[in-house]
Write a structure and sequence with these properties.
Layout (H helix, E strand, L loop, with lengths): L24 H9 L4 E2 L5 E2 L9 E4 L7 H17 L3 E6 L12 H17 L2 E10 L18 E9 L2 H4 L6 E8 L6 H10 L17 H6 L6 E7 L5 E2 L7 H7 L2 E7 L7 H10 L4 E6 L5 H12 L4 E5 L9 H14 L5 E4 L13 E6 L8 H9 L17 E8 L8 E8 L1 E3 L3 E5 L7 E10 L2 E2 L2 E3 L3 E8 L15 E4 L5 E11 L12 E6 L2 E10 L12 E14 L1
Length: 565
């Protein structure tokens, strides 16, 4: 096993501990295809005529409607939202026949306000996907003339919020469950069975939906971090892809959502696995082993113990009968004792519906993804797990810290979508924050313009919740958004953060084949930061350097700046 530095504050003996947007892609793509708009004999650009069915609505203008007209518009929007399963696309400034007539700036502003009022009546949000001038050779709003009489058209996405997003955000329980273990232990297959609701055929059919890359399908080895979910309704019934067509439907009907973080098992991808265990802050870890026990399984167990992550063990592939269960448990206990921990492994039975992870007892499950043996007990156990480190709502007044774990692009958006974990505080729409650090060590002022949680728009995100969001410059005078990358953070303005290249940490050498001296280069994981660092000094270093099981205070120099506050 490669060396792993367990970092914590030298002045504190306690150890410190990453959405997909669904914007009716088919409908948006349909509108996108109309960028190559057809022209009639008068060279007037047009969209296809307004469809009678579906979730697309054309409106020439929505200016000061009467109360009766407003109620009719709300009813019409409700129908369009139902047609789009909670989403609708409004084309403002467009006639029913598709002609891009456009509106003046003031009329467009009034129409968008009416549209917002309509959406608010139905508990929905609006977002401008794109805005342009009508029938102008220069379609770019930013470069066209400032003539206030220039006619504009706008494409607006209307998306309905769930009740839970508006009123009782905390009623939906989020649980992050990392899945780790050696290669060939059957982790992806197990997740495929749990999330798809169908047993495996013994040749890996269930895992195909879990794999992201062609080389993973060819080799059967997971090399990247992937996410899958299952949900549980108020009565404890499982909601997976056997009952629901999409992840959005699962989240819509679930009172509890479990996000599985599928990690790589091969030693070649160990750094990716460590990133998943540190950066994604899982509440619990499911360690999957397949008899006979091997060294790689022990390494993954050592990671859980070193990071002090509560975990339980799943003995997979018991239908193959490689060795007896007592023998496997004995091997697991010996591996734990070898790390200097005293834990007791106990087989899970159906009468034990919950477990105290603060105790020295680790539950063990025997399962088979082919016969289905033990899967019901495992599902019931996961159903009763709870996030052990969730902050209370009192933390809403704390300073905010959001870890950016990934960035991705969504059709129709100019800015990237950021996915990550809110470590502390709360974020609402319109919140002004600082993002960074930038290459020069500075932080840029931004504001939050959209929030998504559990694949649905929301108004508020609280501590320990995962979310995706988009940003905009804080004010009109603020600089444009910088290049955003994983490892950055969003932090409260009043925290006055700064960036650093040097840091000092107490490290424990779990294992390393050779001694470690000053000048040693390694990869350090701290939260969502994964950075190459060089050891510049070792306090009280001996001539022999640092070896296995040694502890020392070490000065590191990072190759790039990271945020501290």
């Amino acid at each position: 096993m490669e060396s792993f530095f367990e970092l914590f504050d030298p002045d504190n003996d306690k150890n410190t501990r990453k959405n997909i947007w669904n914007n009716s892609e088919n409908e948006i793509n349909r509108i996108s295809d109309c960028e190559n708009l057809s022209s009639d004999d008068d060279q007037e650009e047009r969209l296809p005529p307004e469809p009678e069915q579906g979730n697309i609505e054309y409106k020439l203008k929505l200016i000061n409607p009467s109360s009766q007209r407003f109620e009719h518009l709300v009813t019409q929007m409700k129908w369009r939202l139902r047609e789009g399963h909670g989403e609708a696309i409004y084309q403002i400034g467009v006639e029913d026949n598709g002609k891009l007539t456009g509106l003046t700036k003031e009329d467009m502003k009034a129409s968008l306000k009416t549209l917002n009022d309509m959406a608010a009546r139905l508990g929905a949000t609006t977002r401008i996907l794109r805005q342009r001038f009508a029938n102008s050779k220069n379609k770019n709003m930013s470069t066209c003339s400032n003539n206030k009489d220039e006619k504009q058209v706008a494409e607006v996405l209307v998306k309905k919020l769930r009740k839970g997003d508006r009123e009782d955000q905390d009623s939906i329980v989020d649980l992050r469950l990392a899945v780790t273990g050696a290669q060939d232990a059957g982790k992806s297959t197990l997740l495929g069975v749990l999330t798809q609701g169908e047993l495996d055929n013994g040749r890996g059919r269930a895992r195909l939906n879990m794999l992201r890359h062609l080389h993973e399908i060819k080799t059967g080895r997971t090399s990247s971090i992937s996410h899958e979910i299952i949900g549980f309704d108020n009565e404890g019934h499982v909601l997976n892809y056997a009952e629901m067509a999409t992840a959005e439907e699962i989240c819509e009907h679930a009172s509890k959502v479990v996000t599985f973080i599928d990690l790589a098992g091969h030693r070649k991808y160990l750094r990716t696995t460590v990133l998943g265990l540190t950066g994604y802050s899982p509440h619990h870890v499911m360690l999957v082993v397949a008899p006979p026990m091997n060294e790689a399984s022990q390494e993954h167990m050592a990671l859980c113990l070193t990071l002090r992550l509560p975990f339980f063990i799943v003995v997979n592939k018991i239908d193959l009968g490689f060795c007896s269960t007592p023998e496997t448990i004995n091997q697991l206990e010996n591996a734990i004792n070898a790390q200097g921990y005293s834990k007791q492994l106990i087989m899970y039975n159906n009468s034990q519906m919950s477990w105290d992870f603060e105790s020295d007892i680790i539950p063990v499950f025997n399962v088979s993804c082919v016969t289905g043996e033990g899967l019901e007990d495992l599902t019931n156990f996961i159903k009763n797990l709870s996030p052990y480190n969730v902050n209370s709502t009192d933390s809403d007044s704390e300073s905010c810290l959001f870890q950016i774990d990934e960035t991705f692009r969504v059709a129709g958006l100019n800015e990237p979508v950021l996915g990550g974990l809110l470590v502390k505080g709360a974020i609402a729409l319109g919140t002004r924050l600082l993002v960074g650090p930038l290459p020069d060590g500075e932080f840029s002022p931004v504001k939050v313009v959209s929030l998504h949680r559990n694949k649905a728009p929301c108004c508020l995100v609280r501590a320990s919740q995962s979310a995706s969001l988009t940003l905009a410059p804080s004010t009109n005078r603020s600089p444009p958004l910088p290049h955003l990358r994983p490892g950055m953070v969003l932090i409260s303005v009043w925290d006055q953060p700064h960036a650093t290249l040097f840091f000092q940490a107490t490290v424990l050498i779990v294992y390393h084949a050779t001694a470690i001296f000053s000048g040693f280069q390694t990869t350090v994981h701290v939260g969502n930061v994964r950075q190459t660092c060089i050891i510049k000094g070792i306090m009280d270093a001996k001539d022999r350097g640092l070896q296995t099981n040694d502890t020392a205070s070490v000065l590191f120099r990072s190759t790039e700046q990271y945020a501290v506050n």
